[in-house]
Amino acid sequence: MWGALTGLAAATGVFLGGALSDGPGWRWVLFVNLPVCLLALAAAFRLVDGDRRSARRIRFDTPGAILVTGGMLLTVHALVEAPDRGWGTARTIGELTTAALLLAAFVVNERRSRNPLAPLSIFRIKGLAAADATQLIAFAGFYSMFFFLTLYMQNVLGYSPVKAGAAYLPVTAGIALAAGVSARLFTRFGTRPVIVTGALAAAVGVYYLSRIPTDGSYPVDLLPGLLVMSVGLGAVFVGVTTAANAGVPPDKAGLAAGLLNTSTQLGAALGLAVFSAIATARTNHLLVGGSGEPAALTAGYQRALLACAVFLLAAAVIALRATHTRATPPGMTPPEPAQEPGDEHTARQAAG
Fold first, then answer.
1. Contact yes or no for 155/283 (Cβ under 8 A)
2. Using DSSP, how many helices (H) and how many strands (E) does the chain show?
3. pLDDT tens, 270-283?
């Protein structure tokens, strides 16, 4: 459910963002977070279990929190600003170098800390690192695809923000369908084949979208690719969420979830920074050569969407190393393993 809602939110947010931009104004895309957070806060008090277990007070890893937060923040800032400043400028190189040093210091601190913020031993859980890497690379492609396709619809096809947002409504149906089917497929094939197949399907859909023409039409040039992509998106989000939590001890569940969310945010920043540079370079090159603005913009978006498809292919390859687990759908009891002769007697002895 969590993975499905993540995918649905990505598509629904584009539509709601278009409605807000076309209505009260684009600033409401930021203002709307306040009532949403208040609603979530009220729901948390009402719906989330409030029981607390007594625990021994331990020293919080403040140095680790400062180092990792600073390193991540500086990395994202450098990646977002690099397309405008230039990748080879002293400021970009300095920020990325400083971020790398902060993150390296964080790793050293976690190894030495008696109570590390993020125990590195969690990566000994087989497939967890691959699941996080799959999420990072895949979300770089998904998030950037929404961005460039929206620019294409508004800047080239002349769609209003509401119309561009409404173009993604079929995506929500595809995600919901894929999420429900994927949950059933886990019990039969496991998470890894579902993630790989979903990433490959998404790559095919985004590749189709990368062929958008200057005079494109929604039913022919956009809808087929969006539908195929949405099915893949739903399978990847649900599959990676399941794989990233499989085999994680209860006391490390929060850390595993935090790592997955961090991978999502870094993937979005990384993809948008890299693909924006690709699109801008292609568009500027054609504009200097005398091409018209619609053709130059479309060519830039095509190049960026093609890069998104390549990232999704890479995610499929990385997912081959992700956790392979068979989940049990809600309401179903997992089958009892077959017992060998004598096992029942051994079990009674152990219980005694």
1. no
2. 13, 0
3. 888 889 889 988 99
